[in-house]
Amino acid sequence: MSSHDILISMESRHPVSQALAELRRAIGKTQQEFATQVLKTSLVTIARYETSHPPRGNVLLRLADIAEENKLPDIARVFRHAFAQEAFKRIGEHKGLVAFQFSEDGDSGFMFEILLTPEEYAYAEAFQVALASLRKHGKEKTQARNALMSLFEAAAPLMRDDDQQYHRKFLPKVKP
Predict the structure, then answer these.
(1) pTM above the 0.90 mark?
(2) Roughly how many angstroms between the first and final C-alpha of the chain, as a whole number?
(3) Could you give the CA distance from residue 51 to residue 18 in angstroms, rounded to a whole number?
């Protein structure tokens, strides 16, 4: 196999496999180091992930977290997107599906929403950016809180009264 064939072969890898190799190189780890020090798995598993069988399931979320910890948001997005695609395949693609799950203490949770148009995707991405900013401290946090509260206030008339009351008890008072 020529070096040209190897290059073509590497470029035709699954996007998740490519993202994993990029992540590993970006944090300066060999496959062996990444396997043992980062993912606590075998070299064979990492080699397989990077070539023929991309990671799946919760491993994708672990990789997304590692990418984010290393300030590699584009790579993290590849892993989270792959996880979401896998999750939707498992539950079936139902038009308009919304799934919420909160922890028993009500302190954390997740939401799935199938986005039907590019416009919905853009709104959802803007919401996610505001939510991520809300988790930070400082001026960005106040701006994000105000943006999210404005969104809630705009949507409130469309909600049932009992839903409005339920959600309002969790929302902070917004300061100008």
Answers:
(1) no
(2) 65
(3) 8
